Amino acid sequence: DTAPTGSLQIRDVSKLFGSFKAVDGINLEIQKGEFLTLLGPSGSGKTTLLMMIAGFLDISHGDIALDGSSITNIPAEKRNFGMVFQGYALFPHMSVRDNIGYALSVRKRPASEIRTRVDEMLELVQLQDFAERKPTQLSGGQQQRVALARALCFAPPVLLLDEPLGALDKKLRVEVQEQLKDIHKRVGTTFIYVTHDQEEALSMSDRIVIMRDGAIEQVGTPTVLYERPATKFAAGFLGKSN
Ligand code: ADP
């Protein structure tokens, strides 16, 4: 029994709401440790796809596998993927330390193990001096890093991020982007990142998936997408007109 390494195989996945296809036949191989961004305008199916990967939404058609084994019928709580969403919802009555260690205490891990692991996470997100504070005593960017540490604390095979910078102002977004990129490099966890912001996608991702009407318009590295957009839509969406 080996630990999951975090590669994902998405095979012909669709999601129907009634007769409306929100996600339409997605095929995608995501490498272990990759920073993959789902980029597209509002309504293109990014969040729906992410929710199916998380296990919060049933798949209408197709299959999703982790390291080659299907997880389509495995419930969200057993998939154990980390999640960071826009309204990161830290527990307001708990210290930073207890927020970060929450998932481990729920899993009844020994206190000494939790302490060591939380210390590692505090170091990872550079919040060693803030362990005993409450979330309300932190800046928006610091709260964001607590949410990230909390999601990474139980060493998930995959971290799902849905517009996590949406609530931050422009200057802070750039700062947090840099930190996020750095943290990704250091932990080596597979990140799947949803955004409609092309700058964010271009600056952080190993690969970008451009989505349109529930389908993949183009997949590539930021350089390839920027220099050789395959369609007018891709070019327009990346802020280039050619
Ligand atoms: P994105 O994340 O790219 O903005 P979504 O995945 O949220 O797009 O939505 C894709 C499409 O599916 C949209 O047209 C949206 O209105 C529709 N949709 C999403 N969730 C539901 C739902 N629960 N019921 C019906 N339609 C939905």
Automatic annotation (TrEMBL):
GO molecular function term, any single one: transmembrane transporter activity
Domain (ABC transporter) ranges: 8-238
Biological processes annotated in GO: putrescine transport
Domain of life per record: Bacteria
GO cellular component, one term: ATP-binding cassette (ABC) transporter complex
UniProt keyword list: ATP-binding, Nucleotide-binding, Transport
Name of the protein in its database record: Putative spermidine/putrescine transport system ATP-binding protein
Species this protein is from: Sulfitobacter brevis
Residues shown, of full length: 3 to 244 of 333
